[in-house]
């Protein structure tokens, strides 16, 4: 019994010394584990108490309970001291905090004008019953040319116009989004109403109105008894909504595109003037769309019977619309790094 009494006395001194050394939360946790933890020193003495006779338990028990209470008191006292130090530190910082300081403005990003216009275009066509379709930018020769009735000797297949991939035979960066039309015909069949927006690539020199990469939006509508009048009505409805003008007129001219027959080009009356301006080159008309009735061969390649169904297709460049809508003279301005240029949109 005398031996355990001596251990209790020594542990009490050690406990007080350890409590004085607590400077952080880590020290506090170490104190708890050392003295009151499951494998702590006080717990170890408690386990020895179980082996003592009843008479000795009556003497040693109160001493151990007192030691346990001292450990809890020291732990609580150290906890309060650490909390008080944090409060004093916070009050000191607050005392030297200038509430009149103005926060520096944070730079905020925004959507690029192409993204905004593309969302607007998609919204208009969706309200007209069209779905938005997507396809790969790396295409095969079959989907980009063969299935679209483009002859083998067509100049578009030359290296001067098409970016061919040298490491993979018969693959290229798509020159238009028309391959999406073939893929959707194969997948969905008829009837079908889609638009296919996306980036396209061509071997072209960059100037004020051309770029080697641009965004194209193509549309396809297939059903029974579809005619050119449906195409013209769709195009006119779209551009009236896009330019927010109900008085836009259209002009139709013949045009050649291998994947449509007949092929047409659609001009629209200039939305910026009444009698001619620099944008429409003093003509009052602006060329915007290449279009036509889908060639029967293209329908067959898409798995659709041209004797039962007919359809129209159209395509236009997003950059051209952006330049018109915002009176921008050079397409390269949309891709420069000047924030002041892009902020105005």
Short description:
The chain has 345 residues and is α+β, with helices and mostly antiparallel strands. It has helices spanning 2-20, 25-36, 41-49, 54-95, 113-127, 141-144, 178-188, 228-243, 296-301, 318-326, 339-343; strands at residues 131-132, 138-140, 171-173, 192-201, 213-223, 250-254, 260-269, 285-294, 310-317. The model has no long low-confidence stretch (mean pLDDT 84).
Number of helices: 11
Give the fraction of residues assigned to helices. Answer: 40-55%
Q: What is the residue-averaged pLDDT?
A: 84
State the domain count.
Answer: 2
Gap between N and C termini, in Å? Answer: 89 Å
Can you tell me the CATH architecture of the largest domain?
2-Layer Sandwich
Write the layout of secondary structure elements.
Layout lengths: L1 H19 L4 H12 L4 H9 L4 H42 L17 H15 L3 E2 L5 E3 H4 L26 E3 L4 H11 L3 E10 L11 E11 L4 H16 L6 E5 L5 E10 L15 E10 L1 H6 L8 E8 H9 L12 H5 L2
Parallel strand pairs: 1-4
Antiparallel strand pairs: 2-3, 4-5, 5-9, 6-7, 7-8, 8-9
Helix pairs in contact: 1-4, 2-4, 3-4
Keywords for this structure?
alpha+beta, seven-stranded mixed beta sheet, 2 domains, 43% helix, 11 helices, 345 residues, BirA Bifunctional Protein, domain 2, two-stranded antiparallel ribbon
């Amino acid at each position: 019994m005398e031996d355990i009494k001596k251990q209790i006395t020594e542990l009490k001194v050690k406990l007080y010394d350890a409590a004085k050394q607590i400077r952080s939360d880590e020290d506090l946790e170490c104190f708890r584990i050392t003295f009151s933890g499951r494998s702590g020193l006080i717990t170890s003495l408690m386990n020895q108490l179980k082996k003592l006779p009843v008479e000795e338990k009556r003497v040693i028990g109160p001493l151990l309970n007192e030691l346990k209470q001292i450990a809890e008191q020291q732990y609580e006292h150290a906890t309060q001291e650490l909390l008080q130090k944090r409060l004093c530190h916070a009050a000191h910082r607050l005392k030297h905090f200038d509430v009149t300081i103005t926060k520096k403005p944070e730079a905020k990003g925004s959507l690029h004008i192409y993204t905004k216009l593309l969302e607007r275009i998609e919204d208009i066509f969706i309200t007209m019953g069209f779905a938005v379709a997507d396809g790969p930018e790396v295409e095969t020769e079959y989907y980009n040319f063969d299935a679209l009735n483009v002859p083998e000797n067509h100049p578009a297949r030359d290296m001067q116009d098409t970016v061919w991939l040298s490491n993979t035979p018969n693959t290229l960066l798509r020159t238009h989004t028309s391959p999406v039309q073939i893929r959707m015909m194969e997948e969905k069949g008829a009837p079908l109403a889609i638009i296919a927006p996306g980036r396209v690539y061509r071997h072209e020199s960059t100037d004020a109105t051309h770029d080697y990469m641009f965004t194209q939006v193509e549309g396809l509508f297939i059903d029974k008894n579809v005619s050119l009048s449906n195409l013209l009505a769709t195009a006119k409805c779209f551009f009236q909504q896009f330019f927010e003008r109900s008085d836009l007129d259209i002009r139709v001219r013949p045009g050649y595109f291998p994947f449509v027959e007949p092929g047409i080009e659609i001009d629209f009356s200039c939305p910026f003037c009444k009698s001619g301006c620099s944008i429409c080159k003093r003509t009052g008309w602006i060329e915007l769309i290449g279009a036509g009735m889908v060639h029967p061969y293209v329908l067959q390649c898409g798995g659709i019977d041209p004797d039962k169904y007919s359809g129209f297709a159209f395509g236009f460049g997003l950059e051209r619309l952006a330049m018109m809508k915002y009176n921008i003279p050079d397409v390269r301005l949309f891709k420069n790094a000047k924030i002041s240029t892009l902020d105005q949109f």
